[in-house]
Amino acid sequence: MHAPFTLFPTTIPESNLQQATKSIVYFSRLMHHVAMDHQLLQESFKHIIDVDEFTKKLWNIYMAVRNGERVQPVWFGLFRNDFLLDEDQDTSKLQLKQVELNTIATGFGGVGSKLADFYRYILGLTGVKYTYNQIPDSQSTYGFASGFVNAWGMYGNPEAVILFIVSHNERNIMDQRLLEYEIYKQNKNIKIIRNTFEELVKVGKLTEDRKYFIDKEEVGVVYYRVGYAPTDYTDKIWTIRLELEKAWCIKCPPIQYQLVGAKKIQQVLAKPGILDKYISDISIKQLIQSTFAGQYSLDMGEEGDKALNMAVNNPDQFVLKPQREGGGNNLYGEEMKEFLLSIATSSERSAYVLMDRIYSKPRLNYIVKTGVPFIKLNCVSELGIFGCFIGAKDRELYNISCGHIWRTKLADTDEGGVSAGFGGLDFPFFNIP
Ligand code: ADP
Ligand code: MG
Known about the structure:
single chain; alpha+beta; seven-stranded antiparallel beta sheet; six-stranded mixed beta sheet; 14 helices; binds adenosine-5'-diphosphate; binds magnesium ion
């Protein structure tokens, strides 16, 4: 089954793409600083872990590693910052509004790089006139792979392997394989092993000197392509996750990076004054801040009550988000309203954040997907910007912006995840007048 895609690329003003591309290195740096800030993490998660079992389990691993022996000082993240384009009421200019920043199992860094040529080919078939540069190349496969090659080098054992932890019956395997082949292209000495968590229960081993082995092979870098959903785990797999986090291998991402990808952190960072702690440059701060949509805590208390009432009275203006990844978890409209009313007096509500709903202007396109009628329909697109970051405690070792993608869904569906089955891959097109 092919990955779903739109028949045509989707236009974007060049300035919006440039701004988003420029901002990712600052966003990645910010994520790293936040991940180092124990106080902020504790303050942000303290109510959630009382009511959300999954986040609590992640938190417990974080604390176990934090309180344990010296940990691996190199942190590796492959990020994708997602935006919707919001139209300014007065100027009708398009503005980037951040949907979320993905920090674990970020998808489409592999296939995303293929899309520029793919759409050039399709436009060629239609006979549409365009110039080569109207479809801006994306180097996400190259950039992501360069992160692995660098991280592997930093581990320091030329015999060590890179471990991809994947799901059973992986549907998005082509995305991962492209990354694997690009790593090989960049360094022929690196061996990559693919295993599921279930397989690691049998073949993985943490030694006393905290090296992680698969049979006789020492693991230098671990790449999680699973591990963000509660259904990825059993008790035994939670033990494996803890062992990997304790192990000396470099993690992509380490547990703190996964935690800072939580919607809660996004809401906390949008609070007035918080960015000041991490960013001194005013123009960088403004660049980041300008992409924030309204975010509201639902913690028990006056402020949370106010947010809850606001959403109940205007359900179409907000999205309710739990601390989950992977699509299909948010609530909208009447369903959100009913749910909010049902948890209004329960501390359970602090596991969620409320966000202003962004309405992007729909555009006509076809989504090409197995089993779905091939008809022209109104679609909405979400921009993804890829970034690769390697950091140590107080040092940045590698930080690049490495490409872009659109993901497009039908305008009348709420969610946009391609892997979760809601939309298709798409790619930017500059509409040069
Ligand atoms: P997930 O981690 O499940 O991908 P997201 O925050 O990306 O969570 O939300 C999933 C989808 O819901 C997005 O791809 C987008 O289509 C839609 N969505 C999320 N936030 C908003 C918002 N503020 N306004 C409009 N749509 C949103
Ligand atoms: Mg998302």
